[in-house]
Amino acid sequence: MNFSTSQIITYLMSYLIVVLSLSAHEWGHAWTADRFGDDTPRREGRVTFNPLAHIDPIGTVLMPLIAIVIGFAVIGWAKPVYINPRNLPRTSQRAWVTIAGPLMNCMLALAGTLALALAFRTGAVNPNLLELLKTIIIINVSLMMFNLLPVPPLDGSKFLMYWFGMSEVAYVSFARFGWIILMLLINVPFTRALLTTLLGWAFVPFSLLLNVLT
Question: Would residue 44 show up in a list of annotated catalytic residues for this protein?
Fold first, then answer.
């Protein structure tokens, strides 16, 4: 493959944003668990924005690079944050720890939208800056929606236990097939088109906010 300098810069920028966004996602899980009294993430060095604490060699390094360069439908993942359920006795606490990761991506997408609106309002329409902010929004909305899918090991699947009463035994059995189900969902043309449609709807609030602010 022959890549132009601008393509290489775009790929590297997108990759860096993915790594930082994944790190912020995992920090959200770790910080929330720590705030609720579970010191497991802190003892494992996960209550930090440092990407080195969250990098998974395959999910954070290899797969995002493949996805960015060849367009394979996988965003990537970081090392999971482990908690001690005994330190989080209430279901609501575990639910908040679970939602904290996607919520961090939502907040980053919101920050990108506000910064983009500010750039338009002030006339600071540097093409490179606009491309950076758009990429931040796209990647973080995508990560948010991806992680909310109710398929193990994604965050959305945990709500099957916390909100809908699925037993841990049933969840573990379901989780064995999680990655197979997930790969089928995001690469079979029909389900991929459905997920793309849902992702498109996820961008609507951010687009509306941008229109209102500009």
Answer: no
